[in-house]
Design goal:
With about 230 residues, the protein is α/β, with parallel strands linked by helices. A seven-stranded mixed beta sheet has the order 3-2-1-4-5-11-8. It has a two-stranded antiparallel ribbon with strand order 6-7.
Length: about 230
């Protein structure tokens, strides 16, 4: 299992519990250190021997993970506002180019028969943007098959009500607005979790004949499940 853009130890811990060999890629050395400390407190030494935390920035991620190309049964990646969606140019350039979320690279880490999970959600880039359709398009261009779209709640549910937590940073920003703005405090209630599979054979006309894939292809063409 490879966790791209890791921010804590949770996925690594879950992978170890399931008997997997996890690799987590952090952009922040401090977060990686805290995560390792958390793992050391909750897992035995033999788990720590197979867990691997790597630290890099997005512009150098491909070279840092070159040894893992085509080897992962599961790759989990989170597409955030700081990593705008798009196709990698493959050329060094501006900071914005370096931060492009490269689905083709993530797909290249997945072995045949493996899966890519992309965690994303609505973003505000001047206007509200839904990245889901473009994520699906880019993944298909990378030779993956779209399987499912899952809605994952980020806050507790009490009966029929969702009780979102609004961070202190968000509340501070709201207090700076004029009283007439009339904007309620808000928080991201859910994430969109997109699941893709890499076929056992190259994509193309023959891919539709893969055992068990007929229904998946039909689901992908109609938008899949939500």
């Amino acid at each position: 299992m490879i966790n791209l853009g890791a921010t804590d130890h949770q996925l690594v811990s879950a992978a170890l519990t399931a008997g997997c060999l996890p690799v987590a890629v952090f952009a922040d050395v401090a977060r990686a250190g805290v995560s390792w400390t958390c793992l050391a407190r909750t897992h035995p030494d033999y788990d720590l021997e197979v867990a691997e935390l790597r630290v890099t920035d997005s512009s150098d991620e491909s070279s840092v993970l070159a040894d893992l190309a085509g080897s992962a049964g599961l790759v989990v990646a989170e597409q955030t506002c700081r990593q705008p969606l798009g196709r990698s140019t493959g050329r060094p350039g501006s900071e914005s180019e370096a931060e492009v979320f490269d689905i083709a690279h993530a797909a290249g880490l997945v072995k045949p028969g493996g899966h890519l999970v992309v965690v994303t959600g609505l973003q505000r880039e001047g206007t509200v943007v839904d990245p889901v359709p473009e994520v699906i398009e880019l993944a298909r261009d990378a030779g993956l098959v779209y399987l499912q779209h899952v809605i994952a709640l980020r806050h507790p549910v009490r009966g029929e009500r969702i009780e979102p937590y609004v961070s202190r940073c968000s509340l501070a920003g709201l207090r700076e607005l004029p009283a007439c703005a009339g904007l309620p405090a808000s928080a991201r209630v859910h994430s969109d979790v997109l699941l893709f599979a890499k076929p056992q054979m190259p994509s193309g006309p023959e891919a539709s004949t893969l055992p068990g894939m007929e229904g998946t292809e039909a689901s992908a063409r109609t938008g899949g499940e939500r």
